[in-house]
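Q: Hi! First time asking for a complex rather than a single chain. Here are the components, and I think there are two in total. Is that enough to go on?
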Amino acid sequence: MSGWEGLLHGLSVAVTPENLLFALIGTIVGTLIGVLPGIGPALTIALLLPMTYGLEPAAAFIMFAGIYYGAMYGGSTTAILLKTPGESGSVITAIDGNKMARKGRGAAALATAAIGSFIAGTIATLLLAFFAPWMVEVAIKLGAQDYFALMVVAFLTVSALVGSSPVRGLVSMALGLTVGLVGLDFQSGQQRLTFGQVSLLDGIDTVVLIVALFAMGEVLYVAAHQTTSRFDIMPVRKGKRWMSREDWRRAWRPWLRGTSIGFPLGVIPAGGSEIPTFLSYTLERKLSKRREEFGHGAIEGVAGPEAANNANAAGTLVPLLTLGIPTSATAAVILVAFQQYGIQPGPQLLDTQSALVWGLIASLLIANVILLGLNLPLIGLWVKILKIPKPYLFAGIMVFALLGTYAVNGSAFDVGVLLFFGVAGYLMRRFGFPVSPMIVGAILGPLAEVQLRRALDIAGGDVTTLVSTPFTIVVYLTLAAVLLGGFLMRRSARNDTLPAAAHDDEVPDVRESSHR
Amino acid sequence: MSTSPTTPEHAPAPPRDQRGVSLGEWGVTAGILAIGIVTLLDGLGQATSTSASGVGAGFMPKVVGVLLIALSVALGIQVARGKRGEADAAEGDVDVRSTKWVPLAVCTGSVLIFIAGVDTLGYIIVSALAFWLTAWALGARSHLKSAVIAIVLSVVVYLVFTHALGISLAAGVLEGVL
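A: Yes, that's all I need. Here is the structure of the assembled complex.
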């Protein structure tokens, strides 16, 4: 099925009154939760997973599409008005977006983000539709060793390029691999790291892990280190026109450039929305005639990175849907959602579950339109949600983390697991370990082990099989180049971004973000 | 409002705090080393594989264990050289140079109460307690208001889950009342 046919098929699935309603609900709920400070798209989806348990898979994934894009949009709202990005993809948006809000141009910043997200999301989703079938063509030719090579790429790029320190990223990823080991071995049924606990035989529930690391870890972190129990919200002035002609003129190119940076970097199985947003910001600063405005509320500094972030998010769906490889925490949660319905994303997915996949992709387009129609008029409402007092907000996060964990199996043991990894999540935040490599490690680790052992079994234990195909050799060489290049790019991106911000204490230190 | 600079070059923290941070870093490094050793031992303890490649259940734990041990050494070298982790500033308004142990303990305690009491006391009571305690730990000072929100939220969640979604939550001592 080509991209066009697929999309039309998907639209025929998604455009029924009932499914449109699910898309609308998903979008609203996703924005509603995503707009809460400190809750990024990955946690939003993890917390809302139980909502979809009773639904048909197709309806559930249509709702997910809405939740996903809604949460992305909600995240940028918090970044702009509260300077609490909540996820690394919005860290850059927070710099100039919050400055704009401080100058009373909050509405313009939000509109730039919303329209940029719409444009980037739409273009990138269309590209996704055309890329996916092509990628499947390639994917069905790949053997176990090729898959393993791609997974190694995902592991290393997610951990080494995310966050401030490659070593800490790798530690996080290795801890995730350890978590993925817990339970029965898939081949021999031997117990690994179960310490005699019957409850651990099935392994550690990934939803519990995600909720623990993101929600519980965050509550503990804020409880232990907050300096104020109030939020400092920038007001959005009523009646102010959101974007002037001048704003449009300055923003449209960054939107398109951001999209063209974000999407390709999402498609390759290399993780992180940090690099595309950094790159977009740096590029806009270089191209701008008003370079001095960057760091003080340049609209290009919101338009470019927001577009890059959204295009990147759509791009990560390409390796997820066609290869079954998640390269971000959000993609990992979506993978878990698929697994809950007994569906394993991979090259066969487009054939076996074509209604589901194309319905999902078409719903992303629909969700984008809904968001645009909904969010520009409803900005005032989202701002009100931000006014929930901080203690109640975090108490609410605590209660829903407990509920989400307990409700799955009705087991107090799971809540103990939640607390254990919640404390781990706190320590990771406290000591600068990014969280998302751990989640990607825990979910991708077992999949990679299957491919590795399959490859070795086929070759009778000969390790050279891992580099026996041209594909693997190209992949590993490219990986080496990417790691080196990414390292250099990040250094230059930092050097370019920081001087603008360094003299100003009110700008978040872009190096200090954890990925979520 | 200012996001607290956490790196030494931004704001030299008092020596005592620095030592605390350093101790914490060493603790985390040791913890990672310990997890690595446990994982490696688990891998070594697995029965030999009968698969075609001879690679069995013990292989990955050994690889991951060695990786963790190596990474903990690399991390230890960084810590010894004074390179510290940059704490998460994405939340805004956090200062990691001081730790508020009481709120941290109260939050942790509320989860422990939930674990210990959910089957006997029931979901509503432990959930309401968790909300109230967390809100208090995070700085809510209107105890009555917190309590009302906590109880209403827990009851609503309980009713929605048990009646509308058909997911059972423990009723506990309130069995028969609801």
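A: Chain A has one domain: 3-502. Let me know if you'd like any chain examined more closely.
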